[in-house]
Specification:
This protein is mainly α. It has three helices and no strands.
């Protein structure tokens, strides 16, 4: 048991942290905050548009499926009526 703890003490699983940018560089750019807001607004707008398009696609799918099923049922009824009329079933 003691040997296991000694080996675990030598093992480091963590990775080094990425180098941090100095805060002065961010403060020197007066348009950085404005650009960050614009970027976040654009990302939010794109996310909302994707959600809207996804909802439209879902609606189109169910509408098309409903039309196909209704047409199949209607065609089946017409065919069945023709079969009954022709063969006297």
């Amino acid at each position: 048991m003691a040997a296991v703890h000694a080996v675990q003490g030598l093992y480091t699983a963590g990775m080094a942290l990425p180098e941090r940018k100095p805060a002065e560089e961010e403060l020197l750019d007066p348009t950085a905050v404005h650009r960050a807001y614009r970027r976040e607004r654009a990302k939010r707008r794109a996310r909302e548009e994707r959600a809207y398009e996804r909802n439209l696609a879902r609606l189109r799918f169910w509408l098309a499926l409903t039309i196909v099923i209704a047409t199949s049922i209607g065609l089946g009824i017409v065919i069945w009526n023709q079969i009954q009329r022709l063969f006297g079933l």
